[in-house]
Design a protein that fits this description.
The chain contains eight helices and seven strands. By secondary structure, it is an alpha/beta fold. Strands 3-2-1-4-5-6-7 form a seven-stranded parallel beta sheet, sandwiched between helices. Helix 4 links the parallel strand 4 and strand 5. Helix 1 crosses helix 8, helix 3 packs parallel to helix 4 and helix 4 runs parallel beside helix 5. The longest helix has 29 residues. It is globular and about 45 Å long.
């Protein structure tokens, strides 16, 4: 419904393409002002212009979310432009591949391990840490962190650093839900399975088909299906929901 999020301000990391771009587009269609973050300037500029051409209210800032000072600079820009950001979608994440395959632990270099930790986990911490004081001041906030089904089951297509960070995101989510609930700040997590994005498609049809074969719904998910779950968690319809993890995986992993 257009206008459902009118007067809402939503910051999305990793918004240049894939799931993040779909979330940004969806919230803009619902009337929100969206703030886009991405490390890839080409993707970010293209998405920003596409949304401007559609008449959406959008701001963007290219930065490395693993750097706290860079995140602070992005926040200051957005705050000057649109003021209070009431919703944070920590979507950005990386899952390095080598000729289409993830490294086993004995192949991993410490630099790659640290980079994945810095982006997937520290990047989420950075924007939460920066935005929460203003959310406390306004006595309202919605934080949606992106985990993965890889946090709860062995997924051979990813490396151990990815699974470790996505499991940590769940722990972070649940702790903060307890810590921030008294301030009317809701913290939840989504755990996508195989979603049809450039990052997923780059591993090839054989790998994805094996996942499809093990998925009760018999297909990959679409980015807009993820965006609609994020919409629920950001909406007033979820005001009594916090500390939860919602799988978006077609039944691939049933806890």
């Amino acid at each position: 419904m257009q206008g459902l999020f009118e007067d809402r301000k939503v910051l999305i990391t990793g918004a240049g393409n894939g799931i993040g771009a779909a979330i940004a587009e969806h919230f803009a269609q619902l009337g929100a002002t969206v703030a886009l973050i991405d490390f890839n300037s080409d993707l970010l500029v293209a998405k920003h212009q596409e949304m401007v051409d559609k008449g959406y209210s959008v701001r963007s800032f290219c930065t490395d979310i693993s750097n706290y000072e860079a995140c602070q600079a992005a926040y200051e820009y957005f705050y000057n432009e649109i003021r209070f950001i009431d919703t944070l979608v920590n979507n950005a994440g990386i899952s390095p591949k080598h000729q289409g395959h993830a490294h086993k632990i004995w192949q991993l270099c410490p630099e790659e391990w640290q980079r994945v930790i810095d982006v997937n986990l520290n990047g989420s911490f950075n924007f939460i840490r920066i935005l929460v004081p203003e959310m406390i001041k306004h006595k309202f906030g919605k934080i949606i962190n992106t985990s993965s089904v890889a946090a709860n089951a062995y997924l051979p297509v990813v490396a151990c650093h990815y699974s470790a960070t996505k499991a940590a995101i769940i722990g972070l989510t649940r702790h903060l839900a307890g810590e921030l609930g008294i301030h009317n700040i809701h913290v939840n997590s989504i755990a996508p399975g195989r979603i049809e994005t450039p990052m997923v498609l780059e591993v090839g049809n054989q790998v994805n088909q094996s996942v499809i074969d093990d998925t009760p719904l018999g297909r990959l998910g679409s980015p807009i299906e993820v965006a609609k779950v994020v919409e629920f968690l950001a909406s007033n319809g979820s005001n009594f929901v916090t500390g939860q993890v919602i799988d978006i995986a077609g039944g691939w992993l049933m806890r």
